[in-house]
Design brief:
With about 1150 residues, the protein is mainly beta. The longest helix has 17 residues, at about 270-290.
Length: about 1150
């Protein structure tokens, strides 16, 4: 917050007037190129230039504004003050003092002449200096009165100051001058209610002549010495005054000549009008924003925005004024809030006598004696806002009723003193104040009022704490219309910071993807409510975005909150069928959904004791009527080579299968009978579409023990199975045998046995981890993944995984956040697409989707079932590889007991979530990037698959040739090469694959060039290719990697593309992105990945919650590309960072992004 304000206050000005004084840097007090000594006036003018609604009163020697030519006077109005100063006939400025003050405050500005005034539109009135002028000015509603003079502290002066102050005029006086300055007291500057101003030179230091004392408020530019001193003092409007005697027969005439001019004037007399001009700007800017400021408000805003901050000393007070920062306090996030009370208690009562100026037996009739009692009153004023940090609070005497403890020097000035500021038990800020009332026994009266009429007022300046949303959820309606997608209730929970005394109601606005534009959704939410209901929410067919704000009874309205969004119940997700079984799609180790080569979906589920099959007529939008295929539960489905479904399930201790032929199911077949009294569970089924050979895995659970069994199975020649036990144990020892086949048809098995997770294939047997259940195995490309539930507390699980690549098994990695909420029934497909069920609140479970980049880094999670309020369990997923984006499908059981008894099985095609990472097996050939600044290819040949680096391929010793082996002729491949160079000329290179084509590419300087092609099938028919790059002109360009993507033969895209006819293109191959660090939370060591669209200066820094830089990770030029920065958990001094929340921020060019991380050691 503070850094933002400082940034605004020091910003370069956009508006700069054309007056010579400021253009030529003569008015250094307004603007100084060295950024010292000035008040940042041009920066303030960017926000506000002035208002004619503000009345300023100059009590001084007059202002040269009355033109005249007669026998005794020759005068012309000062051109830079015409229209700004109200004419006073027959009164002119003989010394130029008042004229100089007027020019500083409000000279005509941007007229290509003279000087610039601080306020460009204020109305200036003039009167002679002295006490009488203060009465006249305040009675004529003066907003600010400038007093660049001194006076004896007479009763007249004291009472005049009190009168003007009580009328809400801001009184500004000079501290007066010494040679050098002293701590002597001068008036009116030292009187209560007067803003006393000292002087500074052009270097921002206190001027040597400027007096000081405990009563000083602020300092402002006043020059280096008294009198005239060019370039060092204050350049302003003035007068050349001459008196000439003309001899006549009867004597002589005195002819007085007043000539407008400009002079360099020094003294605190010319510091005071800087403050007066700024006070006028603050008052006018506040009025333009609908903010009413009293005299003490203007004073405190100027003081708090001055250079010493919130602390004052006796030499410069609160410091040199800062016009821009003063105006910034009237903008968000700052807020002015006024409070008052008439409730007080008597703290003390004592005998008192004094001679009080202006206090006679009749109020204000003259000087008299007060003899009687003085009572001290104490009042506690609750602030009607909550603040992010401690607010700045001051009292407002003119709006109070009561006196100080020294009315002799305060006259009859109203006052109210602040005693303390604190939070009470309800976290409400309390400003404790006091003032005094006096009882005069001579006339039997209380002054200024009786206790019940005493008034206490204060103002708070701070950053209000906005409403905080506590949670958003969807809950089913109790009406009969409540079905998914048509009529749901929206339950919106929030918490407003600790409650608020003035909070009247909440207001909510919304818009949807279908109908953009914010609209009010509900405007009368009770301040005591914890949520509200919207009926027919299901009629919104697209995502809905919501914001909330709080309305206060004093007219204040908080800013709109952050935006949240909610997807309607199962948005666009077709209901496969209704079920009355909570385990409709259990268990997740057996596939319940598959997708054929035409993109149609086939699913199985259970309702009651019946197994059903249904399929889509398209890509999941339209479904045929379900078909009952048998009695039992826990079905699994696969597709044969000709896209025919085959289904297996269990009923008690028996396994059954059924297959479809020509669109019709044959009769069910009994394929296995377990021991008497046993129960089959956790059925898993995989099929090799190349051969139709398949495997079944299950658990036989009996009274005496249980076994994990595996058996081969061929749907075309189904018969009685002869399973092989791979593990045996107690009655409930096993959870979810899971099966997968690699592209060579080799079987992979995962299961759990009494908390231990195991993996087995033809070559190895591996114990994956402890405290685990429900493992799922998946193969994709050359990668094998096992994902499972790991218990971290009693009945609380997190989702973890291990991956096997060319270099063996990776370390265990957490997929779900270990936040103390249970996660279960994970599934994985395509080597890195994860879905699992997560307890999000109370008994509510949602489906969570997570995926990983091709280098193994996990992305953020996505809620698929969309805060249903029900229980989302037992997911099954299917994946269809396509180009340019693959598709993912999810089937699960959604238990909705409030709608009807039972559950619904819902298939969801993830339309609302674009797959950021397309899970395509890839070969990355790193051709060298070590010599960052050379922009030349370096010889290297490293093969990358997914997260497994450093597997070296064959490459030529002297040419850029790379031989890639073990490609699958049944697949098709797409090659992508990205070039970049920063020489002064174009570079030409040729990409060749298997000598069947030669594609030439021109790489312009500082331009990312990408060429991407499908490889003809002829290139990979022998399972290998040779890739080469040759330069035709100039040096080699950088080529970070050569990427070779492996697709299924039936995916979209032209497999017969003629690569020789393809053209390379210049593209922004990368976009700007700052990714979530991993791991997060972390124990003090984490990695941050980011992507740059263009080359440029890059800054990556870590901040604490106070906005302080903890660590600078990157500060250098970098070309476009993907980068990975490691933080070792230490700050810039090498000290270990403490536990807590941190932010990391990336800046490059105009791109800026911030993310949050948590350190937990």
């Amino acid at each position: 917050l503070v850094s933002i304000i400082l940034f605004l206050s020091n910003a370069s000005a956009q508006y700069f007037p054309n007056d010579g004084g400021i253009r030529n840097r003569q008015q250094w007090g307004l603007h100084n190129d060295a950024n010292i000594g000035d008040i940042n006036a041009p920066e303030a003018w960017d926000l506000f230039k002035g208002s004619s609604s503000v009345k300023i009163w100059i009590t001084d020697s007059g202002v040269l504004i009355d033109p005249v030519t007669d026998r005794f006077n020759i005068a012309s109005s000062h051109p830079d003050l015409i229209g700004r100063v109200v004419l006073r006939t027959n009164w002119r400025d003989a010394g130029g003092h008042g004229t100089g003050v007027a020019g500083i405050i409000g000279a005509v500005t941007n007229n290509n002449y003279g000087i610039a005034g601080i306020d460009h539109a204020c109305l200036i009135y003039q009167d002679v200096g002295g006490p009488a002028s203060l009465i006249a000015a305040s009675d004529n509603n003066a907003d600010v009165i400038n007093m660049s003079w001194v006076w004896e502290p007479t009763a007249e002066l004291i009472n005049s100051v009190a009168h003007a102050y009580n009328n809400n005029s801001l009184l500004v006086a000079c501290m007066y001058n010494g040679d050098p300055g002293t701590g002597n007291i001068y008036y009116p500057a030292a009187l209560k209610g007067v803003m006393a101003v000292g002087a500074t030179d052009k270097f921002g230091q206190r001027s040597s002549f400027s007096n000081y004392g405990d009563h000083i408020s602020v300092v402002a530019p006043g020059g280096s010495q008294l009198g005239d001193l060019e370039n060092e003092n204050i350049y302003t409007t003035s007068v050349i005054y001459k008196v000439e005697r003309v001899t006549k027969t009867e004597g002589y005439d005195e002819i007085k000549t007043y000539t407008p001019t400009f002079r360099w004037l020094g003294g605190t007399s010319f510091s005071a009008p800087f403050v007066t001009g700024l006070a006028s700007l603050v008052k006018g800017y506040a009025l333009s924003k609908g903010i009413s400021l009293d005299n003490d408000d203007i004073r405190k805003i100027i003081e708090l925005s001055s250079s010493n901050g919130y602390w004052a000393d006796r030499y410069t007070g609160f410091g040199r004024i800062n016009a821009r920062k003063a105006l910034d306090y009237l903008n968000a996030p700052w807020q002015i809030n006024k409070n008052s009370t008439t409730t007080s208690v008597i703290v003390s009562s004592e005998s008192y006598s004094a001679v009080v100026p202006g206090l006679g037996f009749i109020y204000g009739t003259g000087q008299g004696s007060l003899v009687g009692v003085r009572q001290k009153l104490n009042a506690k004023i609750p602030l009607t806002r909550y603040y992010t940090t401690t607010p700045r609070v001051w009292t407002r005497g003119a709006q109070s009723k009561g006196w100080t403890n020294d009315p002799a020097m305060s006259g009859i000035k109203n006052d109210c003193e602040s005693v303390s500021l604190y939070k009470n038990a309800d976290n409400v800020w309390i400003c404790e104040t006091q003032n005094y009332i006096y009882y005069n026994i001579l006339n039997n009266s209380w002054y200024p009022c009786v206790k019940e009429q005493a008034r206490f007022s204060c103002t708070a300046l701070g950053v209000p704490q906005p409403p905080q949303m506590a949670g958003v959820s969807l809950r089913q309606a109790t009406t009969t219309k409540a079905v998914p997608g048509t009529n749901y209730n929206l339950w919106f929970n929030w918490a407003y910071a600790y409650g608020c005394p003035t909070l009247e109601r909440y207001e909510v606005q919304y818009y949807t993807d279908a109908v953009p534009g914010w609209r009010i959704l509900k405007s009368d939410v009770s301040p005591n409510a914890t949520g509200w209901t919207i009926y027919d929410f299901g009629s919104v067919t697209s995502r809905i975005y919501l914001q909330m704000r709080a309305i206060h009874n004093d007219g204040y309205v908080t800013p709109w909150s952050n935006t949240i969004y909610i997807d309607p119940p199962n948005q666009d997700d077709p209901i496969v069928a209704e079920s009355n079984t909570a385990e409709g799609t259990a268990f997740s180790n057996g596939k319940k959904i598959v997708v054929d080569t035409d993109g149609k979906l086939h699913t199985v589920y259970v309702s009651g004791e019946t197994v059903y099959y249904t399929s889509s007529l398209d890509e999941g939008e339209t479904w045929v009527a379900p078909v009952a295929v048998g009695s039992g539960k826990h079905p699994a489905i696969e597709l044969t080579t000709d896209n025919q479904p085959t289904v297996c399930w269990n009923n008690g201790n028996c396994l059954y299968s059924i297959k479809m032929t020509n669109g019709v199911f044959e009769e069910p077949q009994l394929i296995y009978t377990g021991p008497e009294g046993s129960e089959i569970s956790y059925l898993s089924y995989v099929l090799d579409q190349n051969s139709n050979n398949s495997y079944l895995g299950w658990v036989d659970e009996g009274a005496s023990g249980s076994s994990v069994l595996i058996s081969t199975y061929n749907p075309s020649t189904s018969g009685t199975l002869a399973p092989t036990p791979i593990d045996q144990g107690g009655t409930t020892a096993f959870k979810s045998p899971s099966l997968a086949l690699d592209k060579a048809g080799n079987l992979k098995i995962a299961w759990s046995h009494t908390g231990k997770v195991y993996y087995k294939d033809g070559n190895e047997f591996v114990e994956m981890g402890d405290n685990g259940i429900h493992p799922i195995v998946d193969t994709y490309g050359d990668k094998t993944t096992v994902v499972w539930q790991e218990e971290i507390a009693p009945d609380i699980y997190q989702i973890v995984k291990k991956t096997k690549g060319v270099n063996g098994w990776s370390d265990k990695q957490i997929i779900s956040c270990p936040d103390g909420q249970n996660a279960d029934f994970p599934v994985v497909v395509a080597g890195g697409q994860y879905v699992y069920s997560k307890n999000v609140k109370d008994s509510d479970y949602d489906l969570i989707y997570n995926c990983e980049y091709d280098n193994g880094w996990l992305m953020g999670t996505q809620n698929l079932s969309g805060a249903q309020g029900g229980i989302s369990r037992y997911p099954s997923i299917a994946f269809k590889q396509e180009w340019p984006k693959s598709k993912l499908y999810v089937l699960w059981t959604e238990e909705m007991p409030t709608v009807k008894t039972g559950s619904k099985a819902i298939a969801s095609y993830i339309k609302s979530y674009t797959m950021t990472v397309d899970p395509v097996p890839s070969n990355y050939i790193d051709v060298g990037t070590e010599e960052y600044n050379s922009y030349n290819i370096q010889k290297k040949g490293t093969y990358y698959y997914g997260p497994q680096p450093e597997y070296t391929i064959d490459y030529h010793s002297s040419e850029l040739k790379y031989s890639i082996q073990n490609l699958d002729p049944a697949k098709k491949y797409r090659i992508k090469v990205v070039y970049y160079q920063e020489t002064d000329a174009n570079i030409k290179q040729t990409l060749t694959v298997d000598k069947t084509f030669n594609n030439k590419t021109t790489i312009k300087p500082k331009t990312v060039v990408t060429e991407e092609h499908w490889l003809p099938a002829v290139c990979v028919k022998d399972g290998q290719i040779e890739i080469s790059i040759a330069k035709n002109a100039g040096e080699y360009a950088v080529c970070s990697v050569i990427a070779l993507y492996e697709y299924d033969r039936d995916c979209d895209g032209k497999s017969t593309e003629d690569i020789s006819g393809s053209n390379s293109k210049s593209t922004a191959a990368y976009s700007y992105e700052l990714m979530q660090n991993y791991p997060n939370p972390n124990t003090g060591k984490t990695a941050i990945k980011y992507q740059l669209a263009q080359s440029g200066k890059v800054s990556l820094k870590i901040y604490n919650t106070l906005g302080q830089v903890v660590k600078t990770l990157v500060s250098q030029e970098q070309p476009a590309g993907i980068y990975n920065a490691i933080w070792d958990g230490r700050d810039n001094t090498g000290k270990a960072a403490a536990n807590g929340v941190y932010f990391y921020r990336l800046e490059s060019g105009s791109f800026k992004a911030t993310r949050k991380m948590v350190v937990l050691k």
